[in-house]
Write a structure and sequence with these properties.
GMP Synthetase, Chain A, domain 3; elongated
Length: 100
């Protein structure tokens, strides 16, 4: 007969275990960054017709605009973009705008 293991105390919720594992593995910041990039359009719907996030790497958020004329409008939103990403736990030190 197989012997079962007994753990004293309360069980740890799976979400906490997973979060701890992701933190230890160094994956959690990448997941947060990916999720934030996916929500960019919801947070800044006024920019979505001409701007989209490309990537977040080493504190730099890369944004692509479809026409150079829109870069000034995007630059005006940089403080709001940095604040929103900070609320999500990502420190955006710089924003680079690329024309594509």
């Amino acid at each position: 007969m197989r012997e079962g293991r007994f753990f004293s105390g309360k069980p740890t919720p799976l979400g906490e275990v997973l979060q701890e594992y992701l933190e230890k593995a160094g994956i959690s910041p990448k997941i947060r960054a990916y999720g934030s990039l996916q929500h960019f359009g919801e947070w800044f719907p006024e920019l979505t017709p001409f701007c989209r996030p490309v990537k977040f790497e080493r504190g730099v958020l890369y944004l692509a605009v479809c026409d150079p004329l829109y870069t000034l409008e995007v630059r005006g939103k940089i403080p709001a973009i940095q604040k929103r990403f900070q609320e999500e736990g990502l420190a955006v030190e710089r924003v680079k705008i690329q024309c594509r």
